[in-house]
Amino acid sequence: MNTPFEIRAWKLRLPLTSPYRLSFGPVSSFETVFIQIDSLEGQGGLGEATFLTGYTDEVFEESWSFLEQWITRQQSLEQFDQSLTKLADSRPFLTSALRSALDMAASLPVLRSDRALRVPVLGLLQGDNKNQLQQNVRSLLEQGYRTLKLKVGFEPSRDAQFVNDVAALCEAMPEAAGLQSELRLRVDANQGFSSDQAISFLKELQPASVSLIELFEQPCSAKDWAAHTRVVPHANDCGIRLMLDESIYGEADIRRAGDLQLASFIKVKLMKFDGLEALMRAIALIKQLGMTPVLGNGVASDLNCWMEACVADLCIDNAGEMNGYLKQRTSPLIEPLAFADGHLCAPAGWRPAFNMDALDALQEGQIRVSIER
């Protein structure tokens, strides 16, 4: 006799401790769909899709409405699995949440919890003036961060001055001066520049800034590969290495970037891929093509950050970007994911479990269905 398994989904907004400022607008809460899959044998798995307008074409409200209809049409585990594969191209975020829950329920080896997890992550540096920047740089260094992320993509001259100010602070501060061999800046435009603006920004960076910049991320619109291509030679002339993020949605995009030599780094996120194994294949391909993979999502809760950290622990040798869980006001988990000395941490045996009271308090919708094996 077939044993049914239950799928639950929650629609909710997770408030942040402070607005996350991006080139396409501030983010005050995560618009999230959580998935939980359980069987009568006690096996369970969790998944997450957190939507960000301007980053993905998938829209939070519409995606939830679609999920309500789609999930009720699944009559068996086999059909569910086949339908997910077909859904991956058009709705990668939703697909990733559902597939990740299946991966966890299947006890995929990468998610094993028999050892402690400790993965370095970057710190987001923001500030409205030099005094704030100095205080925030000092605070991040004291917390153990050695890679700092700077958001640009607003106005080229002002952005370049911001980066130059940070570099000057890092040179002058005693706390930073002793970390020159470790300290790195990642500069992220989040698609905010035209090619001319990106080139202008690069020309205004001072040598001290260039020496600290690990990479310059996604200067132009995700779909405007021609604009990005125009920036490449100017970045090379400046000694700045480029990273693509929003332009990358699968292996075809990775191959395109590698074949055309458009980036030194490629950033990937679990939410863009059909599960953890697909994510690890993408990372392997990036390395095979001579580029460096960067992994992590700054717009995600503990759950997705933990899954990415498990992959990073095996496949990545630079600071992870899975720091979204540090931005949220309240964790959706019973035992929140930890942070210590610049690292995402989880003790051996740690396994995520939803705090149902927290989900019920925040949820704007809920789905519960049973499907036969």
Structural notes for this entry:
It is a single chain. This protein has 373 residues and is α/β, with parallel strands linked by helices. The chain folds into two domains: 5-112 and 354-371, Enolase-like, domain 1 (2-Layer Sandwich), CATH 3.30.390; 117-346, Enolase-like C-terminal domain (TIM Barrel). The chain contains 13 helices and 14 strands.
Report the sheet-strand fraction: 15-25%
Computed CA radius of gyration, to the nearest angstrom: 21 Å
The average pLDDT value, as a whole number, equals: 92
What's the overall geometry? globular
Q: CATH superfamily name of the largest domain?
A: Enolase-like C-terminal domain
- The strand count comes to 14
- CATH topology (fold) name of the largest domain: TIM Barrel
SSE order, as H and E? EEEHHHEEHEHHEHHEHEHEHEHEEHE
DSSP helical segment count? 13
